[in-house]
Amino acid sequence: MKSFLVALMGLFLGLAGPAQAAGTWVVTPYAPARVVFEFYLDHPQKIGSALYWVRSVMNSLQESPYNYSPEDLSLVVVIHGNEIVTVAKKNEATYQDAVDRMRYYASLGVKFKVCGQAAADFGYRVEDFQDFIEVVPNGITELVHWQQQGYALIVPKVLEKTIDIESLR
Prior knowledge:
This protein is of the alpha/beta class. The chain has helices at about 1-15, 45-60, 95-105, 115-120, 140-150, 165-169; strands at about 35-40, 75-80, 110-115, 135, 150-155.
């Protein structure tokens, strides 16, 4: 009884403070994804980070509770920035990790499209690209096409990290 009175007085005097509510886990009923990713990066090395956006969509929908197979997903990546050099065969050794990841995603059904105009600007021809690359007339027009087919547009923002997570916590 005495501890109850002490607690009650603490609440009355504001000593105990308000109770903190916790977050809630919510399982959104996601449908199979239809996504077009726009890769227009200022530096080729950023393609690795941009590919994490593709992985994020794929992995979360293939895991429980969704359990979609790769065949259920329809993902397209349109490449039309400086990262175009990563998919040129002559640069494979320099960008081997990214090429391997893209080849793996392509084996799961992700389509990789390169802007033909950007390719020409870089001096590339169709035969200069990896075998999983499809060259399209124009990257912007390609993005419009997929959005008109009902695909959601995702534009990865790849920023330079200037502060570590621990400092922000």
